[in-house]
Amino acid sequence: MSSWGIREVAEKVGLTEHTLRWYERIGLLDRIERSPDGRRRFAERDLDWILLVTRLRATGMPVKEMQRYAELVRAGAGEAERLRLLSEHRQRVRAALIEQQECLEMLDTKIEIYRRALGPAAKEKH
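Request: output the structure for the sequence above.
Response:
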């Protein structure tokens, strides 16, 4: 079984070592195995979990909700509550995507207005 140190994991997942330690301290990560010299050794399952947590965070899930989700997973129960947490978060993500799409469309419209106003020279530069 492969395992990695905290520096390697930080590089693999795009987080800092400090963030990984903080995630462990606040309960987003289960206790990470330690080598005989006390250094963290992350297993493949830890990397998979970190990827999930990173994506939840990137999509704006509040840390408190992430902590609750982690507690439920570790307890091996609470599937209904896990489903509720993820479903509610999914609704927020979808709403944010719709809002971002509307913003993008507005930007595209404005850009096109300025390109038309500036004529062919504007199109050549972009």
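The first helix runs from residue 6 to 13.
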